[in-house]
Write a structure and sequence with these properties.
about 200 residues, alpha+beta, Spore Coat Polysaccharide Biosynthesis Protein SpsA, Chain A, 2 domains, about 25% strand
């Protein structure tokens, strides 16, 4: 496996990631995952593979939360289709927050160039997502009750995530997010490499 990274010089908004990565992406679709987010649930790899297989448009994941005012919130029409995404609204249109996982096509950097700084002086990811939504090319997959989305951006939420993982590992006797197990299960490494 090979990893490359680009450092964001200042916290100028998530949409800036697509500007910084434009040359690296070279028109290819991409997945952006926030480093302080943890996802867990049966069947998650298949859902992610489905989102990754889309060649045009974008896919984001909505997760039911108790206090949506802290997040980008998805509004839905009577038909269940997403109609809006608003960053930290005072009066949320739903309880579905957009998680920190974004699958966007190769047009994301060009779209990001059109995003204007918000009142917080950030290039908001919700504004970028709205460009897909208005075209009808954004899919919002609702993550059901069997999934966990943990945003570990605070000390308290880091503790919550640690306790969640510890509980699962202790009760099941299985590792959560074990990169070696995943690589072996996907045939990216052989048994000898697994035990190295």
């Amino acid at each position: 496996l090979s990893f490359e990274w680009i450092i964001q010089p200042a916290p100028d908004g998530l949409a800036q990631a697509y500007l910084l990565a434009e040359d690296f992406l070279a028109g290819a679709p991409s997945a952006l995952v926030l480093g302080d987010n943890i996802f867990f649930g049966h069947g998650l790899p298949e859902i992610l593979a489905s989102a990754d297989a889309k060649e045009t448009g974008g896919t984001v994941f909505g997760y039911h939360v108790a206090d949506p005012r802290r997040y980008g919130v998805v509004g839905f029409g009577d038909d269940g289709q997403a109609t809006s995404i608003i960053e930290k609204p005072e009066k949320p249109a739903s309880n579905y927050a957009v998680t920190g996982l974004y699958f966007l096509d190769g047009s994301a950097p060009e779209r990001a160039k059109r995003v204007k700084p918000s009142a917080r002086n950030e290039l908001e990811i919700t504004t970028l997502l709205e460009s897909y939504l208005t075209e009808g090319t954004l899919t919002v997959e609702r993550m059901g009750r069997g999934y966990a989305w943990l945003d570990t951006g605070t000390h308290a939420s880091q503790l919550d995530a640690s306790n969640f993982v510890r509980t699962l590992q202790t009760r099941q006797g299985l590792q959560v997010g074990c990169s070696e197990e995943i690589a072996f299960g996907r045939d990216w490494i052989d048994r000898k490499q697994l035990h190295a």
